[in-house]
Amino acid sequence: MRRRVLTAACAVMVVAAARAEPVRLVGRTGFLGEWAIAASLDPAAGQAPGGLLKGPLTLKHTGMCSPGGGAEEKNGEMTLTPGRGGRVAVRLRAGDQDCSFDGALPTGPGSAMRCTDGSVYPLDLKRAP
Known about the structure:
mainly beta; about 130 residues; signal
């Protein structure tokens, strides 16, 4: 019960914040959590408050095995659509990857995003402090 209340409260915070200032989301993905996620989302043009949010996305490879000795970085776009019961639909597009997540924020253990190429990656995503 407590988890449901917290989940609903987080969803309300995401939607409410979208009315006043950008919603910043951060997290990690990859089997070792080697990709850092950062996004800043604003209401999409023509959307009513509490509707679709979208904005720039940065994925930065922070693992020790970064190619070329430097951190690989991919830029793209994230969209977030608030749903019922505190759920959200999130879509991440960067480079040749197009992935989605449907669930509650912050994500919990076992959360994953599914990509159009059939890949499934662990996902840890939350609102930035």
